[in-house]
Design goal:
Number of domains: 3
Shape: rod-shaped
Strand order of the largest sheet: 1-5-4-3-2
Low-confidence stretches: 38-47, 161-165, 402-406
Protein name: histidine kinase
Helix content: 40-55%
Order of helices and strands: HHHEHEEEEHHHEHEEHEEHEE
CATH superfamily of the largest domain: Histidine kinase-like ATPase, C-terminal domain
Strand content: 15-25%
CATH class of the largest domain: Alpha Beta
Structural class: alpha+beta
GO molecular function, one term: kinase activity
Enzyme class: transferase
Number of helices: 10
Number of strands: 12
Membrane topology: Multi-pass membrane protein
Pfam family, one: HATPase_c
């Protein structure tokens, strides 16, 4: 039996991996930075490798020291020995820890003895007393160690990878650390938020359609649990809608028999006026049942989304009404590609245009597009709607008593159906009265890439 060690894919584990990646990044960059440090750090690090040479030359006689120093090939490319009475030794001995010159005086311990050392580079006047070829080695730096007899051994580094005063080194080191943490945080945030962004895109795609397929379960364990709960809720809503549709279809079918019987019995009523009123009531009941069934079936959601020319669709609507002598005009761009359900969107716009023609005598279709959304406005020149009823008219079977009642046609489902279509596209419809008279139905839909 194979045992597979697989880390748990949870948000907590991803955050832990993020912190670990940031720490590893800091360590790696710190290691890289240590290879490019200036003389202050590199020379101190080289003292441990130079101690054997210092011991050897310190124990040798004055005659052998120049030859031994010339054979040095460790921390530096070259070494020079200066007697205690030489001008170089006197300058090095006079160097003070708090001197304003750019050198650093430290103590060098060997076998329990404390030896004086000086770190400096070409910018320090001390470098003028050291014997080496300046033209060939413009980046040289120096480590000088005082021996027991007050003579000095000077190690000469011929090449320095990186140069800068200590404050600059600190700033750059902190910058490296900050950049590594920032890079790890940005990458971790991107990968952590990617499944959440995908989940949000899936929600925008399905909109308010309970018949849409389930959302694909991806991402950390907690997010997958949330998606699974959402899919379960969506399945319950889908079952509820289907049961509701079946119930309404059965009611509509069962209503046809008693309505037909009422119509047949109405034929025996001798009073023509009463008979006409009865038939009108029967027709209204039948129309209400059929309208309700058509609305609750949500037929527009069975249409597949596709890319279509929205401007061309609106222009076609205006031309069709114009061919029948109805005053409908279109204003906007000649072409605009939009992803949605063209037939459903056409029915929604025609419902708004029908209302504008029925109650406002004319209709104007206007399309405005931006980088984030599209706006379609249907305007008329009618009496408008009372302010308190601007939202109520979207309620199923709601009708205004005066200007928009059953006598003028409609069952109060046109605006409700239109809003349902637009909301399925991720948008919404709002109504407002125009200054000077008229009503404007404003459709706003986001542009989803």
């Amino acid at each position: 039996m194979k045992i597979r060690l697989r880390p748990p894919d949870t948000i907590a584990w991803r955050i832990a991996m993020t912190v670990g990646a940031a720490i590893i990044g800091v360590l790696i960059l710190s290691a890289i930075l240590s290879q490019f440090t200036g003389p202050t750090a590199r020379e101190v690090a080289g003292l441990d490798r130079a101690d054997d040479t210092v011991r050897m030359i310190d124990a040798a006689s004055a005659i052998d020291r120049p030859r031994l120093a010339g054979a040095v090939d460790i921390f530096s490319n070259k070494a020079e020995w200066y007697t205690a009475t030489s001008p170089t030794s006197r300058l090095l001995a006079a160097a003070k820890p708090r001197d304003a010159s750019p050198h650093l005086v430290k103590w060098f311990w060997i076998d329990g003895r404390q030896l004086r050392s000086v770190l400096f580079d070409l910018n320090d006047p001390l470098s003028d007393a050291v014997r080496f070829d300046r033209s060939k080695h413009p980046d040289a730096f120096f480590l000088a160690v005082q021996l027991r007899d007050s003579s000095w051994l000077v190690f000469i580094g011929m090449h320095r990878d990186w140069e800068g005063p200590q404050p600059t080194q600190i700033v750059i080191a902190l910058g490296f650390v900050a950049l590594s943490i920032l890079a790890a945080s940005v990458l971790a945030t991107y990968f952590l938020s990617k499944p959440i962004r995908r989940f949000a895109e899936e929600l925008r795609r399905i909109g308010g359609d309970p018949r849409a397929g389930p959302v694909h379960e991806t991402g950390p364990r907690e997010l997958r649990a949330a998606i699974a709960a959402f899919n379960a809720l969506q399945a319950q809503l889908r079952t509820f809608v289907e049961d509701r549709t079946v119930m309404l279809a059965a009611m509509s079918h069962d209503l046809r028999t008693p309505l037909t019987k009422i119509r047949l019995r109405g034929e025996f009523i001798e009073d023509e006026d009463q008979r006409a009123r009865l038939f009108r009531d029967v027709d209204d009941l039948q129309a209400m049942a059929d309208s309700a069934l058509s609305f609750f079936r949500d037929d527009y959601k069975d249409e597949e989304a596709t890319v279509f020319d929205l401007a061309g669709l609106l222009r076609t609507i205006a031309d069709d009404y114009g061919d029948h002598g109805k005053p409908v005009v279109y204003m906007g761009p000649n072409r605009f590609a939009f992803s949605g359900r063209p037939f459903a969107f056409r029915r929604a716009c025609m419902n708004l245009v029908d209302n504008a023609l029925k109650y406002g005598y004319c209709a104007q279709l206007e399309l405005n597009c931006s980088m984030a959304e599209i706006i379609v406005e249907v305007s008329d020149e009618g009496p408008g709607i009372p302010p308190h009823a601007l939202n109520q008219v979207f309620t199923p079977f709601f009708r205004l008593e005066q200007s928009r009642n059953r006598a003028t046609g409609g069952m109060g489902l046109g605006l409700t159906s239109a809003r349902a279509v637009i909301q399925a596209h991720g948008g919404d419809i709002t109504l407002r009265n125009r200054q000077g008279g008229g009503l404007v139905a404003r459709i706003t839909m986001p542009l989803v890439s």
